[in-house]
Amino acid sequence: MKTFILKSLILSTLFLGFQLNARSIPTTLKPEPYQKETSRWLVRLLEQLHYKPMKLNDEFSKKILDNYIDILDPNKVYFYADDVKNFQQHQYELDDAIKSGNVELAFQIFKLYVQRIKERTDYSLALLDKPFDFTKDEEYIWNREDQPRVNTEKEMNNLWKKRVKNDYLNLKLASKEESKIKEILSKRYKRIYKRVSESNNEDVFQYFINSYVNLIEPHTSYLAPRTSENFKINMSLSLQGIGALLGFEDDHVTIKKIIKGGPAEKQGGLKNGDKIVAVGQGDSGTFVDVVGWRTDDVVEKIRGKKGTVVRLSVISDDDLIGAKPHTITITRDKVKLEEQAAQYKILKVHSGDKLHKIGVINLPAFYLDFEAKSRGDEDYRSTTRDVRKILQEFKSKNVEALVMDLRNNGGGSLLEARDLTGLFIDKGPVVQIKNSRGNIQVDRDTDKSVAWDKPMVVLENRSSASASEIFAAALQDYGRAVIVGERSFGKGTVQSLIPLDNYSNNKEHPMGQLKLTLSQFFRINGGSTQNRGVIPDINFPSHAGADSYGESEYENALPWTSIKRSNYTMQGNLTQDIPVLRKNYKTRETVNPEFGFIDEDRKEYDKLKEDITVSLSEKVRKKETQDRENKKIERKKKREAILKGELNPLISAVDVLFDSEDDNAEIDKTDDEDELTNTENNSEPADDFILMEAARIVTDLVELKSEKLLAQTNKTKPKT
Known about the structure:
Number of domains: 3
CATH topology of the largest domain: 2-enoyl-CoA Hydratase, Chain A, domain 1
Distance between the termini: 91 Å
Strand content: 15-25%
CATH architecture of the largest domain: Alpha-Beta Complex
CATH class of the largest domain: Alpha Beta
Radius of gyration: 28 Å
Structural class: alpha+beta
CATH superfamily of the largest domain: 2-enoyl-CoA Hydratase, Chain A, domain 1
Oligomer: single chain
Low-confidence stretches: 1-26, 230-239, 663-686
Helix content: 40-55%
Mean pLDDT: 85
Number of helices: 23
């Protein structure tokens, strides 16, 4: 292994073959003394405790450098080819640097990064003083991930001229005046540089160390002292105001997750993946362009007092390049635990001349009030307790079958995943947990009672993860439920936060925390939910972009593997039912326009995702915009027809009898046929056709079970 000698390199007037302009970069950036000890401890803990320990060596060192460069400049628009070539002279030395804690190289690379951004900022601002010709037939490569890095300043200038021209055209197509466009872009470019130049020693160290830590496994990461100290606060701030978890991607603050029960989810316009372009206060306040802002600065703009209004100008994740931003108005509120708890509906499904009552439980997360439980409070809140009460309500209302809606359920308490499974099975194993030493623990339901023994369907999508996958997998393995929807996320690992201060004798400066993957979940059939997720028995069409989301999309994700099957007894047999249910569903899918829309969107996305260019011709872009508008109008007409009840006869009507999220709803007081057939005040929520189809599938299952029961009864009748 090569010896890492940074001291002589630092003293040299030339470092890695490039010179730094001290006037344009933060000269105070340098490793902190505490970071040396932090770095050494991180290596020890990762190599000794991680579920997939990896030795830090020369081969890994090269990957760390590549990853660090990609983290800083993923689209290859700042560093020159020669910059990277010079970095690579030291690609086999980073392993020794991290082990020893001498990470000066990372800081020198970051300083050049800041300088390159300053150069591009100055050039971009100069371009705004010159007119652009939008009649020329030229294209801009917006995704340069697989493109070679440029070699000369002339090439870099040409790249950025097209980039700025595209930014300008986007705003022009959004009907912005020339003076306003220049003002917005000027602020945007200055802000990008300002955000990067304000990075401190903690930021740089965290970027660099995570370029190492994240390579081991995607859910393992290092939290610097400030990040660690404010972890809970930052999470809270991100969720306050509109009820959305924010992230940062490609100079945009993006919507990572819409929180169930929050203001954004209730308003309905905001979607995961939306990029926030600007933020306005009140019903008519001026929009402030926030492209390039730090996430916490955008959060500060979005959050506010309950009852006040915030307006977001966003570009949806599935919009084409150059699409005009649209405005979403949201009234701020607090995301309450009550609103994140289990909610339910009672649906009425028409099946020929029959009517069926179907219960739906919407479960946003697996929650448990640990503090109240530990205090001995008798009425502490938990997923299992709340669901049990709902199931009792369903029984009292003669509900015939259940849809457990786990869409967008990112998980939560493992204890609750186990206990909730226990409501639907007799006692038995629920999940197996394997630690880094190879020891396997079987988590079991020990309660013989069954709260619900009628037919059920579990509805999942690509965002159903962790605890929700444990629950779905267990019911699938027991033959207790039919799983429908999309393949789940595929996160089958367990993380713990390890305070690094516990290992340090130096109490002068906190060292932060390590989020470390320690264990992996396995199904009771021996397979893992990791990477593959839970495969539905009945697959719904995948939404556009679903193939680029999920655990399997991480290059360094733990692979799928298996262990020995746990000892359990099947508690249902759906092997003959599922093919029939699948056939019935496929028949409806072909005539349901909404599923057709999903297919159209996916094909359009698949066609465009390979196209990494966008036209810089105003004429071409206007035509593309008009084509999109025409498509929206056509789709709107089809949806209006659905609302008018012009559905194919194969698609049975589904009405809402009761919705617990509707404050004005009242549960029907009788079970008379007249009450059930009175549809005057019922409506079909056209925006949730996925749930409606899940209700039809479980209705089919009810009828199959009834037919089998009738056949068995006829067989046992004495002959006369």
